[in-house]
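[Automated response] Your request has been received and processed.

Submitted sequence:
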Amino acid sequence: MSFTLVGDVHMGPSNSTRPGEETPGLMKRFVEEINGTPDMDFLVELGDRVNNLNYEKDRENALKFARIMNSLSVPYYPILGNHDIHYLTKEENREIYGQPVENRVAFVKGYKLIFLDTEEPVIEGVGGSVSNEQLKWLERELNSDDLSKIIFAHHPADDQEIRDNPHFVQFPQLAFVENREKVRETVGRGKNVLAYINGHVHWLGLYECNRIPYISVPSFTEAWPEKSGAPGMFAQVFISENGRLELTIRSLNPRRILGKFFWNSTCSSL
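Generated structure:
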């Protein structure tokens, strides 16, 4: 199974090191790139599609994002990020993207994809949390069958070192799911969990807990320390029949492979 991951696109007015005004053209290039990639099964969009400004602009940019993504030749699954619901509601996001954006599951080639909403509620407009009801739902989905599973969310549930991340120097606690220990405990009890994959922190993060990799996907748009020159970063994953996971980090600007990482049950380069 092969799939693509993209997140933290921040379409809209440029803000600090997030040159959101560059993203419409770059996202069109990205869609063309994915459409030209053979044997790609689906795409997961990890949230923060807009650089929130106000209701009108956020809705306009969300609609623009949806139109671009609707040109994909493979199915895509959007997840909510904190910026997506700063002015727009979850219901409005569902309406704009024409599909669910909260907790749900999908089945592809015998794998179970679990999409976890970490905005229950948003903490101080930035951080994430997972409600007790969601944890019960996650426990059920992780243990109701023997399929191999991958969890997708916006916020990290790991304990990666965040102090050198320029966006969270002032509030490191907002880089994560607030009750991440409970999330990891739930994930650790799950059957055949291959990975937990998220966005939010704008950089590549690789962490392991209970032999499960926790992967943070870099932002598509983040140009730090520059104010322009969005890199168009994204990730692609290939999972072999024996459960070996291969993660490739790519960019469009310039177009290159930035690194490959591998993980399986017996050895790991993460």
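Summary generated for your ticket: The helical segments are 23-35, 55-69, 90-97, 132-143, 180-188. Residues 39 and 114 are 21 Å apart (CA to CA).
If you did not submit this request, please reply to this message.
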